[in-house]
Design brief:
The structure is a single chain. The chain is α+β, with helices and mostly antiparallel strands. It folds into 2 domains: about 1-20 and about 140-270, no CATH class; about 30-130, 2-Layer Sandwich (Alpha-Beta Plaits), CATH 3.30.70. Helix content is about 70%, strand content about 10%. The protein is built from 10 helices and 4 strands. The protein has helices spanning about 1-25, 40-50, 65-75, 80-90, 110-120, 130-175, 175-185, 190-230, 235-240, 245-270; strands spanning about 30-35, 55-65, 95-100, 125. The protein has a 4-stranded antiparallel beta sheet with strand order 2-3-1-4. The longest helix is centred in the middle third of the chain and has 42 residues, at about 130-175. One of its GO terms (cellular component) is plasma membrane. It comes from Candidatus Sungbacteria bacterium RIFCSPHIGHO2_01_FULL_47_32. Belongs to the ABC-4 integral membrane protein family. FtsX subfamily. It is found in: Cell membrane. Its main location: membrane.
């Protein structure tokens, strides 16, 4: 059962890592609103405040004309032609921007439509409509990965539980003669079940605890490699911070699995 619980624990950690990756991807999906160069900052901030009041909006960040220009110069600092051309201009030609992130990426169109319907005179363009196909496709991929990932986790967990159930059933099968003898001498069903249920509880506690302990050295070795792929979370640190909860889950699942498997397996030999 230890291997079964280790697999279940691994699936839980994979789910955590997957949620972090999906969260990072969702955080990169946004829309940008560009304002004409002569727009006043106070008018832009009024629009920003109205967007932040929308229930679907998670975050709105403002990038001023000067900040956009500084970023542009830094990005092209090795291109003398562009830098010289900017120096000859009388005013900053770049546009202030609002970057908008939604709580749910599928709601970005609602936010874009809100801005479009308001017809703000200082708004030059909204890049959502230019990137709509890409945003919709990426949102669909994220939803599909999340749903299919949960399905895979449940299927693999079910397979692992079936393996554990069969292991316990085989162990009880070897004690079938003892069960038959106890029935012949008039022992009650619960008297016969008791030792096997207790064994299932102890087996679940021991297996869950051992599986939780095994994750510590495994994650200590694997985490540095995972950080290359998922830099936003250190699985070893995460496990340390949630060790009690994680161990409790594994022990709880182990006890339930042990008791349930023992009950079903013994029931076969108690049927009249």
């Amino acid at each position: 059962m230890t291997l079964t619980l280790f697999v279940i624990g691994g699936l839980i950690l994979m789910g955590v890592a997957a949620q972090v990756v999906l969260g990072d991807l969702e955080g990169k999906i946004d829309i940008a609103v560009y304002f004409y160069p002569n727009s006043s900052e106070s008018d832009i901030m009024n629009i920003k405040n109205s967007l932040e009041a929308l229930s679907d909006v998670k975050e709105v960040s403002y990038i001023s004309q000067d900040a956009v220009l500084a970023e542009f110069k830094d990005r092209h600092k090795n291109d003398a032609t562009i830098i010289n051309a900017l120096g000859e201009l009388d005013q900053n030609p770049l546009e202030a921007t609002l970057n908008i992130k939604a709580k749910d990426p599928t709601k970005l169109q609602d936010v874009a439509d809100y801005l479009q319907n308001k017809k703000y005179p200082i708004v030059d363009k909204i890049n959502y409509y230019e990137n709509q196909v890409v945003i919709d496709r990426l949102s669909g991929i994220l939803a599909g990965v999340r749903n299919s990932g949960l399905a895979v986790i449940f299927v693999l967990a079910a397979i692992a539980m079936l393996v554990a159930f069969n292991t316990i059933r085989i162990a009880i099968w070897s004690a079938r003669e003892e069960i038959n003898i106890m029935r012949l001498v008039g022992a009650s069903s619960w008297f016969i079940r008791g030792p096997f249920l207790f064994e299932g509880v102890m087996h679940g506690i021991a297996s869950g605890g051992l599986a939780a302990i095994l994750f510590y050295p495994v994650l200590w070795v694997v985490s540095p490699k995972l950080l290359v792929v998922i830099p936003s979370i250190d699985m070893h640190v995460y496990y340390q911070q949630h060790l009690l909860q994680f161990g409790g889950i594994l022990i709880g699942v182990g006890v339930v699995l042990g008791v349930f498997s023992s009950f079903i397996a013994v029931h076969r030999y108690l049927r009249v």
